[in-house]
Amino acid sequence: MKATVMYGAGDVRIENVPDARIIEPTDALVVVTRAAICGSDLWPYKGMPSSEVGRRMGHEFIGLVEAVGADVRKIKVGDLVAAPFAWSDGTCIYCQEGLHTSCLHGGFWGGTKLDGGQGEAVRVPQADGTLYPLPVGRDHALMPSLLTLTDVMATGHHAAITAKVGPGKTVAVVGGGAVGLCGVIAAKRLGAEQIILLDRHPDRIELAKEFGATDIVSERGEEAVARVRELTKGLGVQSVLECVGYAESTHTALSIARPGGAVGRVGVPQDEVMPAINTFFSNITIAGGPAPARAYIAELLPDVLEGRIHPGRVFDWVGRLDGVPEGYRAMNDRRAIKALIEF
Ligand SMILES: [Zn+2]
Predict the structure, then answer these.
(1) Which domain holds residue 334?
(2) Residue 290 C-alpha to ligand 1 middle, in angstroms?
(3) Which of 139, 147, 185, 276 keeps 20 to 30 A from 299, CA to CA?
């Protein structure tokens, strides 16, 4: 079968790899029908040292179950399923608490040992706990929005939840990539009154306004902080969704939270230390991390199916598997917000 393999920065190839197959009795074999390229795939695309050993890529996919292992009970052959960006057993103490990304028997797709979503098929470990059956056909018109439930929409929602967004609150979303845009959707969905997007790209800003952003701040650094204060009677916002992960964006996020506010961080941190902002005397909560997408699908799915939210609009590039290297280039050059792969 064919799959996406990364060998170093800027070096993504479509190669023949061993066919995915059932190994453990708890596995399912899923033939991929849709996949995506994630902003987080761009971190290795920008900085991975060259390697002889390729790394399988992709962690957002939907597909058809072609086979199941002997111990799989809930997932059936023929199901159309969404696979969240982490796999999990659904039964351990953390899964029971809704934190599937910390599953004691779980893990993440791709790398050197597992299949990735940007390929023709995937061996899915812990199939019963991981996969979420979808009540639609494989080419349903809502497929782009359904695909966002595997990562970016769930991640935007997680940013909003951990930033304690609620009815009537003031919110800032730092970064207008696919996750930030989904963060705008999530904040609006949870009843925020003011949603300030910090970004400077016209295409993203336009979409953010359609999703519910009320104000745009395109300045950076201290100017951005001053502008957010102007927009919030000098106070800062109650909830900040940090959707980038750089030190500068985290610095801004911590600086615009008002006393008693919360910052939900979902951008994968690219620096090991937290910026030295004094959050102690302001009683600011700093939370966030990898979103337990598996826990959020059930809550978000009806809003997608009934047309209340349209997160699939973040996809502005569509291609086939052979076009994946161009999809990476398009996203890396900021010519595309997010790439969808059809099979
Ligand atoms: Zn678990």
Answers:
(1) 2-151+292-342
(2) 15
(3) 139
